[in-house]
Amino acid sequence: MDLSTSYMGLTLAHPIVASAGPLTQSVDGVTALARGGAAAIVLHSLFEEQIRQERATALELEVEFDDINAEGLSYFPSVPTRLPNDEDVTTRSYLSLLSKAVEAVDVPVIASLNGATMGGWTTFAKKMEDAGAAGLELNIYYVPGDGVPTGVEVEDRHCAIVEAVKQSITIPVAVKLSPYFSSFGQVARRLGDAGADALVLFNRFYQPDIDLETMEAAPGIEFSTPFDARLPRTWISTLRRTTKESLAGSSGVHSAADVVKYILAGADVVMTTSALVENGPGFAAVLRDGLDAWLSRAGFASLAEARGKLALSDDIDATDYQRQGYVAALQRAKQMYGSFTAN
Ligand SMILES: Cc1cc2nc3c(=O)[nH]c(=O)nc-3n(C[C@H](O)[C@H](O)[C@H](O)COP(=O)(O)O)c2cc1C
Predict the structure, then answer these.
(1) Is 254 a pocket residue for ligand 1 (Cβ < 6 Å)?
(2) 258 CB burial (10 A radius; 0-12, 13-18, 19+)
(3) Closest residue (by CA) to atom 9 of ligand 1?
(4) Which of 42, 67, 137, 307 counts the most CB atoms within 10 A of its CB?
(5) What band does 153 get if pLDDT is binned at 50, 70 and 90?
(6) Residue 62 burial (CB count, 10 A)
(7) Interstrand relation of 10-12 and 16-18 (parallel, antiparallel or unpaired)
(8) Is residue 36 a contact partner of residue 281, using CB atoms and an 8 Å limit?
């Protein structure tokens, strides 16, 4: 079975990609993932705040990052050291991990930059390219909690970041996104126009719980469930017919069936973190082989034949479709659970 696919201009043997996470923060983890069957690997993120903190410590002033709350820096370990050759510890160790990982495996290694503002951090894209990254994933996580910026300003910022990064490198750029836009389809189109080669749908957010004993917010990460795939999958099926950029399905992949569903919706690749942490790096091959088996059973000759089979076709109004799906689901639920009558 030909499972090959193209993602942001890279040719991959199959669509199972290890997304950024605990297994992609060491050379051993990356090597295990490649051996375990991942067709490409996204390194864990280098955060804007880490770069900013190092620079602020070194220069004792902040000029480039003037629109981000300094409190955010306290989440990262303090890095007071500047190395003799003028490179910072965190960035240097990220670039070292990247070049060693590229050396160690024969699948593409994609670097990840995670930030929210326009600033000097985007210039690190060039260093990542020089260190051998096959591509760059930009994780833009910007949630204006002060209620000041307009929706359009938020979108403009995303596009400006993508444009700035695209201008500084020649390797392909993917953007990992939040679904929380008023008109996500338009945002996707604008990011494509800004130069994004791929869209990763979606980023996962880790809002804190509240600890009732300590009466404090309690940050923490929980692994995804297959249900988390529904929103990104629906958007992939909606965008597929109009989007020339690659689409990565990210979130909620825990079985080969979840992979198949993303592919039928129109994903070029399917990313997974939680399932690889829970089941081990070899689970990538389990997903790949399960996809292969399903495609054979269903009579497809290749992955390409199956991709997008359930994407929205041109004759369907995507806005009506979303609304009809919602209404139909609620009507079915009402029939199933009946109406309440008091005894
Ligand atoms: C422990 C952990 C660490 C993560 N670190 C990163 C990161 O550094 N950068 C990033 O973009 N996403 C990170 N993610 C998010 C994953 O890449 C992925 O988008 C998310 O987990 C959804 O995929 P899943 O349902 O397969 O877990 C992390 C996720 C987990 C669980």
Answers:
(1) no
(2) buried
(3) 45
(4) 42
(5) very high
(6) 16
(7) unpaired
(8) yes
DSSP 136-189: EEEEE----TTS-S-HHHHHHHHHHHHHHHHHH-SS-EEEEE-S--TTHHHHHH
Q: Which atom of ligand 1 is the closest one to the Cα of 276?
A: 26
Q: What is the whole-number distance in angstroms between the Cα of residue 330 and the centre of ligand 1?
A: 32
Under CATH, which number does the domain 5-312 receive?
A: 3.20.20.70
- To the question of pTM greater than 0.85 for the whole model, the response is yes
Quick: pLDDT tens for 82-115: 544 445 788 899 999 999 999 999 999 999 999 9
111 lines ligand 1 (CB under 6 A): no
Comparing CA positions, the residue from 242, 267, 228 lying closest to residue 17 is 267
Going from N- to C-terminal start, the domains of the chain cover 5-312
Tokens of 262: 């993303």
The reply to whether ligand 1 has any atom less than 6 angstroms from the CB of 253 is yes
Segment among 134-138, 200-204, 216-220, 247-251 with least mean pLDDT? 216-220
**Token output for 36:** 């375990």
Residue nearest to atom 25 of ligand 1 (CA): 251
From the list 125, 116, 112, the residue with the least C-alpha distance to 72 is 116
Nearest to 137 by CA among 8, 293, 3: 8
Query: Would you state the pLDDT for residue 60?
Result: 54
| Residue 19 Cβ contacting ligand 1 at under 6 Å | yes
- CA–centroid distance, 22 to ligand 1, in Å, is 8
- Residue 162 tokens read as 């993508």
Q: What percent of the chain has pLDDT over 70?
A: 89
Main-chain phi, psi angles of 216, to 5 degrees: -130, 155
Closest CA to 54 of 103, 86, 27, 89: 89
pLDDT digits (tens, 9 = 90+) for 20-75: 999 999 999 999 999 999 999 999 999 988 887 776 666 554 445 555 555 555 55
Residue indicated by tokens 């800004």: 194
